[in-house]
Design a protein that fits this description.
- The structure holds 2 protein chains of 2 kinds.
- Chain A is mainly beta.
- Chain A has one domain (15-256): Clam (outer membrane lipoprotein receptor (LolB), chain A).
- Chain A contains 4 helices and 13 strands.
- A 13-stranded antiparallel sheet of chain A has the order 6-5-4-3-2-1-13-12-11-10-9-8-7.
- The longest helix of chain A has 9 residues, at 26-34.
- By secondary structure, chain B is of the alpha+beta class.
- Among the domains of chain B are: 1-33 and 234-369, Multidrug efflux transporter AcrB transmembrane fold; 49-57 and 429-591, no CATH class; 66-196, no CATH class.
- Chain B has helices at 12-33, 49-61, 80-95, 133-144, 174-185, 198-232, 235-258, 269-295, 301-328, 336-367, 375-379, 386-396, 400-418, 434-445, 467-480, 492-502, 517-530, 533-536, 558-569, 572-577, 587-620, 624-630, 632-647, 654-685, 688-715, 723-754, 759-762; strands at residues 66-72, 104-105, 111-115, 119-124, 160-166, 192-196, 450-457, 486-490, 546-553, 581-585.
- In chain B, a hairpin with a 3-residue loop joins strand 3 and strand 4 (119-124).
- The longest helix of chain B has 35 residues, at 198-232.
- At the A-B interface, strand 5 and strand 6 of A face strand 4 and helix 17 of B.
Amino acid sequence: MKIKITLLFIMLLSVTLLLAQGTPSALQIIENVYRRAAPEDQQAELQMTLINSRGEERTRQIQQYLKAYSDMDKKIMFFKFPADVRNTTFMNWSYDDESKDDDQWIYLPALQKVKRISSDSKSDYFMGSDFTYDDLGERHPGEDTHRIIAEEMINGEECYVVESIPVDEDYMYSRTVTWIIKGKWIGLKKEFYDEDEELLKILTVKEYQNISSYWIVLNTEMHNVQKDHLTRIKLSKLQIDRGISDTQFTERMMRRGL
Amino acid sequence: MKSKPFSFLKYPVLNLVILTIISLFFFRMIKLHSRMETDLDKYMPQTHPAFVYSNLAEDIFNIRNGVIIAIENPAGIYNTTTLDKIKNLTRELGKMAEINKNDVTSLYTVDNIIGTEEGMDVKSFYKRSPGTPEKLADLRNNVRHNEMVFGRIVSDDETVSVIVASIDDDVFSQQFYRNILKLVESFEGPEKLYVAGTPIVEGTMAYLGPQDMKKMVPIVIVIITLVLLIVLRSVRNTIFTLLVVLFSTIWTFGLMAAVGIPIYAVSTMIPVMLIAIGVAYGIHLYSHLELHLRENPNDDKQIAITNMLKSMWKPVMMTSVTTAVGFLSLLTSEVYPIKYFGIFTAFGVMLAMVFSLVLIPSGIMVFGMPRRKSVKVLKQSSKSPVSFRLADTIVRYKILTPLLTAIIIVVALYGIGQIWINSSFLEKFEKDSDIVLTDQFINEHFGGTSTLNVIIESDKPNRLKQPDVLRAISRLQSDVEILSMVGNSFSLADYLQRMNKVMHADNDDYNIIPDSKELIAQYLLLYEMSGDPDNLWKVVDYQYSKANLTFQIKSDNSKVIKEVIARIENHRPDFEALNLKLNYAGSGYKALVFTDLILEGQIKSLVISLFIIIILLSVMFKKVWVGLIGSIPIILTALISFGVMGLLNIPLSTTTALLSSIAMGIGIDYAVHFIERYRIYAAETSDKTTTIRLTMQHSGRAITYNALVVIAGFLVLLFSVFPPNRQLGALVSLNMFTSFLGTLTIMLLLLAKSNLYFKTRKE
């Protein structure tokens, strides 16, 4: 059971596996990242800051709840700030079955109606940020071919540098390069290249912590270098495995608000 | 007539060699360092508030000019191949180095905000071109029901669709244009494709004007050479007269290259000025020499030249100084290319003066006196010369001439009342040129190829999410769209109306701005979650404190744009009541402001130079009356020049306005030569009739030749394929003619009437 988390690259270390072997293969490194145990549910306050090329900032505060199920992940997000969108609620059910589109609802308090929204593809940007829906999910290791291109130290951590090239040639990125901390199996930095093989975005993990034996990323930044647009996401008041009720992810809760 | 020879004439060969070497040096400078400046933005004063504001707004909202490509299929665009072509052309355009792929807008790229039974959906109209009739019908239906696309991207009759590629101002080149045409051509058949848009119009104009000039100028020079040969009756004299013009032009452009000032479009007028003014020096000098030799056939070249210089250096110097001062008055302009034009033309005129006083005598010293058949001179004894009879005739029409002049002035003033300014680029092309026809075609089917941006601004963030503001914007849009030349408009209000309608099950009653500011904010959040927020940043800024309204206009004519602005201005009080500022932006608006600036500067400098010239003339001739009388040809020339433009509906533009400087430069030359001669003969003969006759024979003849040469040369431009160059040719010729006629008729009459230089004798 694995939970697909909005912005977090929650990773757990499988030390034993590493000790058993020498240098793992590129695929194994990615598998290690992919196959970690993760919390079953999580609630947190999320602050999203959007910064454009002129240095102007917009901030949103969101209360979010996540829960993993056997065949899907559910997520509900309540806007707390800005005031004019307070209690606007967004709910997403994402299915493990790749062929099945996500179900998404939005509740607009000013309209007092829950509406379904759909989006064309996973290459859409999430809430005007620099993250696509796909960036926020977890990509199955089998969807790319991987290769170790270097081993480097960043921020005092030894990292494998793994290049991943999608099997599907029409994928929105032509390739990605990820810096993965040896042993902790956290992606510390990731570069995304567009269809023309030009650097498009850089994801940087600013802060991560070991909480209840899970490695949890608390602070990330995605920089679209082509547009010079930046998104910062920061988690606070994090609570893990508190047994969030299934009824939290319903239209009724959307209408009720915070 | 004995006089000491001028010392520089001791080494005439050296003079010629030195001048030639320096000219070659400057020629090399031109070859190495000259560059053309074609980016129109570079012409505008960057510190002017209107430009500062517009540039800032263009930056915030990514307002740029678009290359517009229209695909026409008379059978309708909703078939798989046409849709495939739209998709593929969109992608191919995005791959061009000059175009950012995110800046290409077409039916393939635009968002379709649609209402579904349960909510809202933002998706593209198609990814893979629909293959079945049902899917094609679906697509057609989707477009028809989307006001943001129907009539904007797809024409109302569904036979044409446009692809717009926004580009930066400085990326347009002829190569780029050719590449686009080549790309577009490969998509032809059965569909027809058209390429238009402001970058194409501006770029082609910047290219076509100089290109046409390159073809025409050699012909102009050939004609001028031929006429010079006829009037000077000497190959040698013709060559040296032309060398004066050539050298001064080379030095002027060489100096521009050396100090790193690029060649602007107006700079191409410098040679025009120098030809018109420069040939005059040679003609006057040779004409004097010829007359002198008629009277003193036995003088050797040393004496003849010394006499020529002695009596001519002063008027030549005076004309060039007054002309140069006239051009220097352009320094008051706020537009740098015009300032440079003024400085360098003044420089060129002074050079032409120096060269004519050095090159021509040195040439005679080295190559000998011009050999002339003096047949005519011998025959003259029986009858009085033509010039004498002409002078007598002119003096006889004491009443008719002033009367006619007065009538002409009145008509000219009426014409000036009709004059209008046009900053349109499109109207500089032939009515039946491809560019104009394509533009018409697109304007018939869509909102318009020209745009005007209106920026609504508040000092508070989020103000643009308020219903009162959005309603005011919406009202402004629908009111201005009533104008027939306004195709459509686009703003944040359109997004909100569309979303409000879609969220209410596509009910048209909800195609309005919602009442609640929370709902507006929530719609916008929703749009950001489901659409491409980059589209939003073209109509509103990040903080929701500034909005950009785009009006699409079917013409770039200044009258039309001003009419639209006047209509918008009616709404200004509404916005001010809401504490909002209203400003304009975009390239069409900047062109409008720019043209006004140029004209304002031009008129200011005309008035200033007129005063300076009157003062200069008064000082040079030590009489205020001479200053006033001498300025008459200039005033007449300027009045008639503007008057004719008004009467013939030739709008004032950057080029035509500058032509009034020619009127100044040439008009003053004629007057100075004439008055100086008149003064000398008055002193020599003390008889007015003889003075007038002799002056007519001397200066009158030279002036006539001068006018003849330049008019003949510039009339050639009437055969140009580029309309602005035709106007240039016609107006230069006209100015030459009025200056010539004004000097020899009304000025002569007033000079005679005033009794200047005869006063003492009368008493």
